Amino acid sequence: MKSLVIGMGIGQLYLAVLKNIGSEVITVDTNENAGAHFASVDSALERHPFFDTVHICTPNFTHYDLAAKVAPYTKIVFVEKPGVATAEQWLSLLTTFPKTRFMMVKNNQWRDEFVDYKKIAESADTILFKWINRNRVPKPGSWFTDKKLAYGGVSRDLLPHLLSYYTGFFSDFAKSVPKVKLVKQRWTIDDLADSDYGEVDPNGHYNVDDRVELEMKHNGKLLFFIADWRSNDKDDIGLTFIAEGGARFEFELGLCPESAYEIMIRSAVDNLNNSDFWQQHIKQDLWIHEAISNVTAS
Fold first, then answer.
1. 298 inside domain
2. pTM
3. Band of the pLDDT at 89, cuts 50, 70, 90?
């Protein structure tokens, strides 16, 4: 197996995971200090013209062009969330490159506990999906907090994680549409003296949403989604299930383990020719793209 990792930020995680499963890994990063094999995708493809998997771990605004560039040279393209700018762009990749498989990274669906969560979800009346950080605005002032480059804020950074739980829990997920209850920019660059996730650039941009709340009804269930970069209180990343009669089940999630990424990649490779597997992920990825586009348009 041979893999290409583009972008050595979160790409470092993919490098470790891919090496652990025995893949040969070629890396690309424009930063000469990142320690990558190549400084450009073109130079990597010139030397290595075919891969089993490609992993796009670059800033959001580069995802579509990079996915289109590498598609003819690989069997599977994994695009880090939030995928691309719109569902239409995602569909364009699928139709332009029908021989290539595309998957927006939904690593949480491969957690060991996911099957247990799914069983509980089926019998719950209310589900709360939360990703609330105490102080984790990604690199404030960088492309992460520039709406044009990031396509939003927590709506693009954290909501895909929560929505991927929902699409993984219910096979008929597409019948329901989330309603935006709140999408708000609560902070400015001047409010951020620090962040637990990257240094603050006081001269940079901060024009993104940093708290989003959605609600949705699905087969009589009431679902709530809350994503927040900075609560100034505590980290609160988890799932809460409330059953009929008030029984309550709460699970702390925390950051996704590397083992889930490994299972995700192996599953995709093993199911390369399983059309049912890919049709399900196509439906999920398009639905999530559309849902997030509706949030950022609000």
1. no
2. 0.96
3. very high
Q: Report if residue 288 sits inside a domain.
A: no
Q: The domain containing residue 99 runs over which residues?
A: 2-105+259-275
Report how far residue 215's alpha carbon sits from residue 61's, in angstroms, rounded to the nearest whole number. 28
Domain presence at residue 212? yes
pLDDT (0 to 100) of residue 274: 98
Residue 47 CB burial class (10 angstroms; 0-12, 13-18, ≥19): exposed
CATH of the domain at 179: 3.30.360.10
pLDDT digits (tens, 9 = 90+) for 149-160: 999 999 999 999
Is the distance from CB of 230 to CB of 137 less than 8 angstroms?
yes
pLDDT at 246: 86
Could you give the count of Cα atoms lying within 13 Å of 153 in the half-sphere of its Cβ? 27
Record the tokens describing residue 145, joined without a space: 């907090």
Query: Are 291 and 160 contacting, i.e. CB atoms less than 8 angstroms apart?
Result: no
Contacts made by residues 14-17, CB under 8 angstroms, sequence distance 24+: 14/55, 14/57, 14/261, 16/258, 17/258, 17/261, 17/262, 17/265
117 in the same domain as 220: yes
How is residue 26 written in tokens? Answer: 């070629």
Report whether pLDDT(297) > 90. Answer: no
